[in-house]
């Protein structure tokens, strides 16, 4: 089975997708692209939380032209999501998009496809072909009777053949479904058939909780098998909700460096202090931290000290107070109302080289 290090590398701006063991983190704006200031603000927030490539929807020419203003103000590559209208693809490319999401079989005549491919060749822009189980071609759906891995692969081949026939090979493929097991099966099959990098994702995955479960079930085994070159965890709501899930998944698969590790006990009747607000505040703070630091927040004296000693920075709680522990050594006793700010100070001061 081909591994991610063996897929064909393509460049989206200055970010390489494929051909290495780095899995690129993506997200997508949920604001109309023509609302430039709001979109830029959202992208900058996502950048701080670890997003490496951002996708925006292009519904009309106003959206396409807005890309020119957006790319001047952000620091990560931008992918333009386009359906059916090749003119929007051309406008987005001209405006400075670094990547295009477009299915070549859905934009009309071969002449239209050739125009888009030529523009992408001139600018060095890759094309992502996105296959969704819910929108397969009518004849494929009728052939298989329901969405299947074989049907999704057949659909992808049609689009890939068009691009390959035009001698275009800077291709990324995705095979998304709301069914995590179908995603798992299809991506495994695709990794055996196509040499191109794979964009992993479960579509329409729901809330942060359901998305985390579905995405881990579908994408975790793929990542561990060396499959997947870029990833988006789709969550209903703010795209900022996506980043913690994907970073945690990649970290636990040992595919992400400089990602903090937060350990927190589930609490029980032994817990004698308000632990959750401290955990929530530190979890949110760690989303903007790029360090291999392990922070433990433990609720009582039973398991707390033991877990805390294995962390870089820790709190072992007691009765409305807790012990601050650094690399196994007790530093001092803190009241609850001082824990958050003190932990932030210790996280900021932490240096990985000291470990």
Automatic annotation (TrEMBL):
| Domain IspG C-terminal: residue ranges | 261-348
What pathway is this protein a component of?
Answer: Isoprenoid biosynthesis; isopentenyl diphosphate biosynthesis via DXP pathway; isopentenyl diphosphate from 1-deoxy-D-xylulose 5-phosphate: step 5/6
Record-listed [4Fe-4S] cluster binding positions: 265, 268, 300, 307
Q: Where is the IspG TIM-barrel domain?
A: 7-245
UniProt cofactor note = Binds 1 [4Fe-4S] cluster.
Swiss-Prot/TrEMBL cofactor(s)? [4Fe-4S] cluster
Q: Which UniProt keywords apply?
A: 4Fe-4S, Iron, Iron-sulfur, Isoprene biosynthesis, Metal-binding, Oxidoreductase
Query: What's this protein's family per the entry?
Result: Belongs to the IspG family.
Name this protein carries in UniProt: 4-hydroxy-3-methylbut-2-en-1-yl diphosphate synthase (flavodoxin)
The gene coding this protein: ispG
């Amino acid at each position: 089975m081909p591994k991610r290090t063996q897929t064909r590398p393509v460049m989206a701006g200055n970010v390489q997708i494929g051909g290495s063991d780095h899995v690129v983190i993506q997200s997508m704006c949920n604001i109309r692209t023509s609302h430039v200031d709001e979109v830029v603000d959202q992208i900058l927030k996502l950048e701080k939380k670890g997003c490496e490539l951002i996708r925006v929807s292009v519904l009309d020419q106003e959206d396409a032209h807005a890309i020119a203003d957006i790319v001047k103000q952000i620091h990560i590559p931008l992918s333009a999501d386009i359906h059916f209208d090749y003119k929007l693809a051309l406008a987005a490319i001209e405006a400075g998009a670094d990547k295009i999401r477009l299915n070549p079989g859905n934009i009309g005549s071969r002449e239209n496809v050739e125009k888009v491919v030529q523009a992408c060749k001139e600018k060095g822009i890759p094309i992502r072909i996105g296959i969704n189980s819910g929108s397969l071609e009518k004849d494929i759906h009728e052939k298989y009777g329901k969405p299947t891995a074989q049907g999704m692969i057949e659909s992808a081949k049609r689009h890939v053949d068009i691009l390959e026939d035009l001698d275009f090979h800077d291709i990324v493929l995705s095979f998304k479904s709301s069914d995590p097991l179908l995603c798992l099966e299809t991506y495994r099959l695709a990794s055996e058939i196509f040499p191109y990098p794979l964009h992993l994702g479960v579509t329409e995955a729901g809330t942060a909780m359901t998305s985390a479960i579905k995405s881990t079930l579908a994408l975790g085994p793929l990542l561990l098998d060396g499959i997947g070159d870029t990833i988006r965890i789709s969550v209903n709501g703010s795209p900022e909700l996506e980043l913690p899930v994907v970073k945690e998944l990649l970290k636990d698969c040992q595919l992400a460096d400089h990602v903090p590790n937060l350990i927190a006990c589930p609490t029980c009747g032994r817990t004698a202090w308000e632990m959750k607000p401290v955990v929530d505040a530190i979890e949110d703070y760690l989303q903007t931290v790029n360090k291999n630091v392990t922070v433990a927040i433990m609720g009582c004296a039973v398991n707390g000290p033991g877990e805390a000693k294995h962390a870089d920075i820790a709190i072992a709680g007691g009765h409305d107070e807790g012990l601050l522990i650094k690399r196994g050594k007790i530093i001092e006793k803190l009241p609850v109302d001082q824990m958050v700010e003190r932990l932030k100070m210790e996280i900021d001061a932490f240096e990985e080289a000291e470990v």
